[in-house]
Amino acid sequence: MSRKFLLTTSLLILIAIIASACQSSEATTAPGEGAAAPSGYGVLVQAIKDRGKVVCGSRTDLAGFGELDADGRNVGFDIDLCRAIAAAVLGDAEAVEFVPVSAAERGPALQTGEVDVLARNATWTSTRDAQWGNFTAVWFYDGQGFMVPVDSGINSIEDMNGATVCVTSGTTTELNLADAFRQRGLDFTAVTFEDTATVYSTYEEGRCDATTSDKSQLASVRQGFATPEDHKILEITISKEPLTAAVPSGDDQWFDIVKSVVWGLINAEELGVNQSNVDQMASGDNIKVRRLLGAEGEWGQADLGLEVDAIAKAVEAVGNYGEIYERYLGASGLNLPRALNHLWTNGGLIYAPPMR
Amino acid sequence: MVSNVTNSLEDIRPPEPPGLNTWIRKNLFNSWFNSLLTIISLVLIYLVISGLIRWIFTQADWEAVLKFPFLYLVGQYPRDQLWRVGLLLAIYSLMIGMSWRKWSGIMRVLALTYAGFFVFLAFWPAPVPTLTLWMRAALLANLGIIALGYFLGGIKKITPRYLLIAWMFSLVVSLLLLHGMPMGGFLDIVPTNLWGGLLVTLLLAIGAIVISFPLGVALALGRRSSLPMIRIICTVFIEAIRGVPLISILFLFSLILPLFLPTGIRIDRLMRALIGMTIFSSAYTAENVRGGLAAVPFGQTEAAKALGHSNFQITALIVMPQALRTVIPPIVGQFIALFKDTTLASGVAVLELLAVGRSVINSDPQYLGLQMEVYGFIAVVFWILSYMMSHASRRLEASLGVGER
Amino acid sequence: MSSKKSPTNAIQFHSQVPFWRDERVLRIAAQIVSAIIVIGLLIWAVINILNATEQRGLSLGFEFIGESAGFPIGESDIPYDPSRSFLYAFLVGVLNTLKVAVVGVFFATILGTLVGIARLSTNWLVSRLALVYIEFHRNIPLLILLLLWYRGFFTRLPDVQNSITLPGPMYLSQRGLQLTWPRVTPNGWPFVISILLAVILAIIVWVYLRRLQEKTGRSTYFSLVSLGILVVLPLIGFLISGGNPLQADVPVLSGFNFSGGYQLTPEFAALLVGLVTYTAAFIAEVVRAGIQAVDRGQLEAARSVGLNYSQLLSLIIIPQAMRVIIPPLISQYLNLTKNSSLAIFIGYPELFFIGKTTINQAGRAIQVFAVIMAVYLSISLMTSLILNIYNRRIQLVER
């Protein structure tokens, strides 16, 4: 009797579990029905608006770019781009669902439309652009360099013949490293890890004679070492690394929106619009500023399906490009020199088409 | 006369229990070889323990562990919704307290460990703003709840059966409480991509073992079926899953499955990892259950057949109950293995305990050198929990009388 | 329901039951239905794959496998450089997996047996230590164990300039263990071939003569004869190759690293040590259970017949314990092989690591995955085949 009772209950519970499992998967699916493979202009944008959330492929394990703070909130240079997009499209910088994506999953996550935007410091390459989706506008210019111990006597790639180099696997970095050595007919041993922290700590402990990565990363990592003055970053740069957010292919409107948000943030810095003065600037008399912030005319919001003050909201939420940089990569963050990532007016490469 | 009796009693009295010296001589130094082994062992023990103590107290820097209690516990779970986790812990406190009174044995070990967890957490040396005094007080209050549960457990009307049902429903209740009602309702939805830490580790292990159990039973029956088609299908499935590493199955479900799914269907990541672990676990459960089925004497089936029972009845009422009794210990063993294997989910971007540890290490270049501390801490957490479970399993085994026959 | 049938009904089972309750019909129907479901699922999956590949511009072809891989691999026993093809990179991965599996199985068996015996030691301290060892390893995730070994030990060795010199000479440093390695001289090949021949011949002769002895009962001196083959044949090879077949290749520190000799990297070493210590804990339990499974009466009987300890061990305990030990032991070997895929977390380039890198660099997740699965499956199936053959032989012996 009681056994039968138990049997029935356990069956019921099983069904309940399966049902709740299905429901919880539905819960994330249902609003974005059809989101998985946007096929056509504006379809994905509509899906995002219906869902009320931008799904952002991100990472939690790279200081400055994508990490977790002590409260478990996603923070970082790439993360703020997603927040800005959410603020522009949905009017709420918190309306983002951050999905942690491993390096190997970046391509598939875009191809399957699991994420609406991938902001996970991915290098824009022509093959990836063809295979994964569409790369938007460059968010951070980087170049690959080498870090070596000061007392190693290494000053150039030629000095590294026969050296052991620590590098992150499955990245363009790894390929560039191989190319650079092969080009010069030099020999090297690679020690590769998936996890960047492992790469650097392995180098710091002396397992490798050198480590290679984007120079920005090297600079930030060097500061975290126990004795930063024992390590130096070589002058040489062996590759171009334009780190860029990407979107799934299929919805050109969404593609345009993400590009526009990036440009908007850049233009905001160029025009001196920042988080604290965005309101008074909108009511100011600079026509370019007023147009950018939606106070005058329309620079295409109608075509993009955005509110006129989309960029104003984005800037209000996270600040302009320079402020975001300052927060995570500048003096209050990793303390990287802006170098290539200065505005074009300051001798850098950060340049956005006009917003009109 | 009287003295005479005492004398004879003294003669038959058992010899004095061996003193410490005798014991040492007998167990440690009974031959030159054993003496050598003893000395080597003592040196080894001294080296390991003194080295460990020196490292823990003088060399290690525990900042990367101590500063982030919630990250390790629940990952990104919104801090303003933490009360839900707290409530869940309180519910379990009550149930564990009641079970302690009802079943004693393993439940006592579980309850004491659970209480220890609260004490440990309440005195976690994290900065007060992270772990407020209120929270610490609430954690300690759970000790009272366990005691209350122990008291309530004495009430006759609450029969073990109700308690068992409560345990069965607890998983669903936990999921609903943590996630919020799927249809909305008064709780905010906390999407699973915010869950993390120990919470996800436990959820993955428990979810996978619970769901994989019926699957495994079905597969085991299928593999023993007299129908060749079904037997082949089940055998191929089981062997294929057992033939490849878990990490590759996790990858299959997190990376490849989404590519296969029809347009419009998206399964969330935690669910994908859970499916992977469940499928993996079901193949092993199947083999364990098959072992149990094989242990049921064939005479039982024949006798049941002779009494005119149907095949279904024979399986469900006669063979299975006997088989499952012998299967409990290996299933618990499998659960422990699965619990440890959840660490592999960190490879598919599920923020379980190890992945949280890695994010902490990565979050600040200054933590790069603190990997031993973080990994060591996680190792200790896993060790305590799995040791607890294997200890409980051994007691269960003894109380079921499996293994002796 | 059917139990409530009256006995008469049951007797008339074959003649009168309608076809939907006829067991023969039901059996066939159940099989057809399950086959249809499985085939249907497969077809559904295939259609989905085709749809998805079309929609998402994926390719299902294997042409990429001939393209040059482009990524470096840290260690390889066959010459590799980034201009080699993906296929070749896979081969490197498979060889690396097999290398760590074979060496790992060897050492895990030795360590596991030692710990298992220690567990049964009459020395209380030794037996407790073995227990602590087993409990420590059984309750800790392998992945964390690997990370602890790698981070906590192998990368903290002295740097290459101050390496520890071990007899051999071997050099232990952060670059790993540099072994002095025998290299075959140009005219040394006859010697190597003769050794191989000798081993094969010795095994064949040993098996044959042993069977003969069992059959006829006459001593055939099988051990002695095989040993003779093992000594004489290589000697001939040695003479043919002019007395100098092998040369010690001593590692020398030059520039950044050692050159010459054979290098075991810290990644390999950490993976090996982690897998060995972990698996040994499980093997120890298997060995202990096997030894304890030998009936006490057997031991007493053997003692009373007058067998000495080594005879007791080799004639009574080991043969009986082996029968219990071998099946779970092989499944532990298989676990070790599969667990070697965790190397991805500590940078040893085995199959899974190479596969994942390939997915990153070339896309083609589906194809790469198929290759990985196929390799692991064939290793497992081969092992279970051997196990089955062994089990069958054991059963024959039993009768």
How would you characterize this protein structure?
Chain A is an alpha/beta fold. Chain A has helices at residues 2-29, 43-51, 77-90, 106-111, 126-131, 172-183, 196-204, 215-224, 252-270, 278-282, 287-292, 301-304, 310-318, 321-328, and strands at residues 54-58, 61-62, 66-68, 74-75, 96-100, 117-118, 134-149, 163-168, 188-193, 210-214, 231-233, 239-247. In chain A, the strands form 3 sheets. In chain A, strands 7, 8, 9, 10, 11 and 12 form a 6-stranded mixed beta sheet that branches. A 3-stranded parallel beta sheet of chain A has the order 5-1-6. Chain A is globular, with a radius of gyration of 23 Å. In chain B, α10 (197-224) packs across α13 and α10 (197-224) packs antiparallel against α15. Chain B is built from 17 helices and no strands. Chain B is 75% helix and 0% strand. Chain B is globular. Mean pLDDT of chain B is 85; it is low at 1-6. Chain B is an all-alpha fold. Chain C has 399 residues and is α+β, with helices and mostly antiparallel strands. The longest helix of chain C is centred in the first third of the chain and has 34 residues, at 23-56. In chain C, strands 1-2-3-8 form a 4-stranded antiparallel beta sheet. In chain C, strands 4-5 form a two-stranded antiparallel ribbon. The interface between A and B is large, with 65 and 67 residues.
Outline the secondary-structure elements:
The complex is a heterotrimer of chains A (356), B (405) and C (399).
Chain A: H1 2-29, H2 43-51, E1 54-58, E2 61-62, E3 66-68, E4 74-75, H3 77-90, E5 96-100, H4 106-111, E6 117-118, H5 126-131, E7 134-149, E8 163-168, H6 172-183, E9 188-193, H7 196-204, E10 210-214, H8 215-224, E11 231-233, E12 239-247, H9 252-270, H10 278-282, H11 287-292, H12 301-304, H13 310-318, H14 321-328
Parallel strand pairs in A: 1-5, 1-6, 8-9, 8-10
Antiparallel strand pairs in A: 2-3, 3-4, 7-10, 7-11, 7-12
Chain B: H1 2-12, H2 20-28, H3 32-59, H4 63-66, H5 69-74, H6 82-103, H7 105-122, H8 133-152, H9 160-179, H10 197-224, H11 228-242, H12 246-260, H13 269-295, H14 298-306, H15 311-341, H16 353-363, H17 371-400
Helix pairs in contact in B: 6-7, 6-8, 6-9, 7-8, 7-17, 10-11, 10-13, 10-15, 10-16, 11-13, 12-13, 13-15, 14-15, 15-17, 16-17
Chain C: H1 7-11, H2 13-16, H3 23-56, H4 86-119, H5 124-138, H6 142-152, E1 164-166, E2 170-173, E3 176-179, E4 181-184, H7 189-216, H8 222-240, E5 246-249, E6 252-254, E7 257-259, E8 262-264, H9 266-292, H10 296-305, H11 309-339, H12 351-362, H13 365-398
Antiparallel strand pairs in C: 1-2, 2-3, 3-8, 4-5, 6-7
